[in-house]
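quick one, 250 residues, struct below
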Amino acid sequence: MTRFALTLEWNGASYQGFQRQSHGPSVQQAVEEAAFGVTGEEVRVHAAGRTDAGVHALGMRAHFDLARAFDPFRMAGALNAHLGMAKHSIAVLDCVEVPEDWHSRFSCIGRAYEYRIVNRRAQLTLDHGKAWRIARPLDAEAMHDAAQALIGLHDFTTFRSAHCQSASPVKTLDRLEVRREGDRVIVEAAARSFLHHQVRSMVGCLVMVGQGQWTRADLVTALEAKDRRRLGLNAPPDGLYFVQAIYPDI
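---
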């Protein structure tokens, strides 16, 4: 058996997230079908994260097993060819052979996301479906200051989807930074793992701070409430990007 680790990039607008769904196309299904087209073997593709519908990826790590040997460079090229023929907005950026005990999800020790906001009154054109447009001015400095209150070990129940399957709402948030680049406001988040909707929920509440509707104290109150009903706002999926999965050895 040969285990291949992939680095995937995709535009999430056309997919119901990474994981296979009965009600629409998924990234997992597309890559598995491409692998079958290349090898004739049915494979199961596992990923470092299960992104929602509409969420994008710049560097998602994934893996699958093949019964026979295959050159990784040729595998990447062949998968891209099949994905391109099927007009999928998915690209295999890299493919390497890894040990059989390496797992894209369970071997991962860190995950990083980026959320992109375009802060302008004009409608989005080139960034349509790829960012959240907010017309009202945002105070990025206030957002960054408030974000620091969420760093560390907390019960993030308030920022957790009702459909979250995580065993515990307690997570350690390593980094949450907000910066402005012209009319763009970028939010970067990093942790070992995240709850379902956690990043989008945190971003939504930070936007309320940036618009002056909430203060840092209001954000802390919502966090300490440990109650999803105290969530201020859940950001749309359009602006969310899975940026990187981190591993101890590769």
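The first helix runs from residue 27 to 39.
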